[in-house]
Structure formats: C-alpha cells, structure tokens
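WARN no homologs supplied; continuing
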Amino acid sequence: MKLLVNFSRGKGRKPIIAQAVRDTGVLITVERAVIDSSEGEALIDVPDDQCRLVRDKMTSLGADVRILEHGITFNESECVDCGACISICPRDVFSFDDEFRLRLAEERCILCGKCVDACPHDALTMPL
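OK structure emitted
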C-alpha cells in the first residue's frame, strides 16, 4: 500500500523513514521523494498489512501521513485512447490491450502527475 508522507524541517532534522524502518522492522520502498531545506514529501510503498503501523510511527515522529487507497483515477468514458499518457509515464503504468484500448497498472504509479498534464481529454486525475 502507498503512503504519502509530508514533513517539515521546522520540526527537526530527524531521519523519519530510517527511524520508522528501525522501530517497526518494516521495509519501506521510497518510490518518489522531493525534499528541500525546509520540507519534504515522499511516496512510499509498504506491505498492506503493515501500513497502519508505519503510518502511526511516522505520525509520532512529526510527519503528516496519508494512506492512498488508489493512485491515478482513469475515466474510461473521457479517454480517446490516444496514448499521450503512455509516452510520458516514467513507470510504464499505461499500455494498450489487443484492441488498442488504454489499460492502467495502478500499482506501478508513483503519482508524478505527468500523465494528468499530458492527457488532452482530462481522463486522468490525481487522488485527493
């Protein structure tokens, strides 16, 4: 399951992800991170049965953590199967099936938003 972790350097320079791994014993995959001198955001992947444990630990360390039930939302009725999302996606989330209709492998998505920006029919949206 994916967790979106936001933290502020104003609360200290704690190694939140490393501390959560050490204290919970849960291995965490960092799929995307943007960190600067004052704040950061990381999209992490943890085993489904351990996501609440990791969320609670990171929250106790001062991070804001949101469990993401879904990644990119795909509105098939708006999609014209143009493939603009296929060419821009860094994780091969999108593909065509045998009938050249767009298919989505949501579990690969790192929520970079490139596909949303590229879609000419607004058929893709980021989770709220």
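The chain has a mean pLDDT of 91.
OK
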